[in-house]
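User: quick one, sequence for these tokens?
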């Protein structure tokens, strides 16, 4: 096999150390190996860089091992080296050959012959966006956990506020909970805190707010409400930080928000996970496959054994699946029609993933071409093959025992 990179290095990355193996090929087909271990602190990585420079290494390969590869990548980027990040599932060593030096030599050998497919590594700015959007997801999840704990304490106190109020942490619900924490036991006083449409349920509120509240319940609710406000404050600060960081890309965010189901938060996630340069993906389907929104392809002996989606970018998949659910509830919307078309054949769960795939492909073209989403309408599939739609509906009515006669609308008007 031809050697593409005669001076390549494989790095086996660990938390405290990195094993390096440099393969040197000469014009006559000779091969030499140089192996050395380095610590992963700043001084050690500096020695690694100097050692690679002395050996005139041109290409470097490493696995994406947790977050341990990041400082090594940052230390080597911006130099004359061409670094390649490999998916560990694609570069597994032979069974029985699992050692640190053996893994680095295996990576160097694969690199030298061009057998490693490079993974997508976003630029530093996009990396910072990812940190912010992923932190926001964690804060939202923490908010939900605190919400559930508050609900549990109310249930323990036999206060059934959630049976009347759709959101126990709305304006009315918070005022009532704060009143309980303050020691108010009069249900009339608590029910008077209802706002807006909840005032119509005044009598029901007086019933469900009569519980068995103890000092322990008040203390727990007070602590949880303080924690809830703290999480909300942190989320607001993160939102402001994201807005400031993505201010130069407001136009891209606006265009992404024209897609049904995609809001500002989903647009932030798309930019943070995919980046702004769509040239890293050959087309929209490759971006969807990288995100884990494509069916798996596992066949043997001509039989499909599984079509489960592969692991991908779980942050992007989460946001797009939420957008797919939101788009499915839009009226006169192509994505809603696509969702129900898929749900009729495969079920709602697979339809959500398929719709998320469709949204990602649309977002890819919106960001690549600089255009906006063009709505095709909720009757797109009906108009695509109108004769099929007509025959299907006629058959459905005939199965109900009805006799159907179909005439064009113009002809029916003339005869009347």
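Assistant:
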């Amino acid at each position: 096999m031809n050697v593409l990179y005669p001076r390549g290095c494989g790095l086996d990355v660990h938390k405290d150390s990195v094993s390096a193996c440099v393969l040197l090929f000469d014009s006559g087909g000779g091969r030499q190996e140089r192996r050395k271990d380095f610590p992963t602190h700043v001084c050690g990585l500096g020695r690694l860089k100097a050692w690679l420079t002395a050996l005139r290494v041109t290409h470097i390969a490493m696995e994406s091992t947790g977050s341990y590869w990041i400082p090594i990548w940052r230390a080597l980027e911006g130099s004359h080296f061409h670094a390649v990040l490999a998916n560990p599932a694609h570069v597994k060593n032979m069974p029985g050959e699992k050692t640190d030096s053996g893994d680095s030599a295996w990576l160097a050998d694969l690199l030298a012959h061009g057998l490693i497919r490079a993974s997508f590594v976003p630029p530093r700015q996009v990396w910072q966006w990812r940190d912010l959007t992923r932190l926001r997801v964690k804060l939202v999840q923490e908010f939900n956990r605190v919400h559930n704990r508050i609900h549990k304490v109310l249930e323990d106190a036999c206060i059934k506020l959630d049976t009347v109020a759709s959101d126990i942490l709305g304006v009315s619900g918070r005022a009532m909970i704060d009143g309980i924490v303050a020691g108010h036991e009069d249900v009339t006083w608590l029910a008077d805190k209802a706002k807006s449409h909840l005032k119509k349920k005044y009598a029901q509120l007086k019933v469900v707010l009569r519980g068995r509240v103890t000092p322990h319940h008040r203390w727990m609710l007070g602590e949880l409400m303080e924690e809830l406000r703290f999480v909300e404050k942190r989320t607001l600060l993160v939102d402001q930080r994201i807005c400031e960081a993505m201010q130069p890309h407001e136009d891209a965010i606006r265009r992404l928000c024209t897609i049904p189901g995609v809001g500002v938060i989903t647009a932030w996630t798309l930019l943070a996970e995919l980046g702004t340069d769509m040239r890293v993906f050959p087309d929209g389907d490759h971006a969807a496959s990288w995100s884990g929104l494509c069916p798996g392809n596992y066949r043997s002996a001509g039989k499909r054994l599984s079509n489960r989606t592969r692991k991908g970018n779980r942050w992007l998949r989460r946001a797009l699946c939420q957008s797919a659910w939101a788009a499915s509830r839009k009226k006169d919307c192509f994505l809603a029609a696509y969702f129900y078309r898929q749900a009729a054949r495969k079920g709602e769960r697979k339809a959500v993933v398929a719709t998320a795939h469709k949204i990602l492909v649309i977002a890819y073209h919106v960001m690549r071409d600089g255009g906006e989403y063009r709505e095709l309408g909720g009757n797109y599939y009906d108009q695509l093959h109108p004769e099929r739609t007509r025959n299907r509906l006629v058959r459905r009515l005939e199965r109900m025992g009805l006799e159907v006669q179909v005439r064009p609308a113009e002809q029916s008007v003339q005869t009347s």
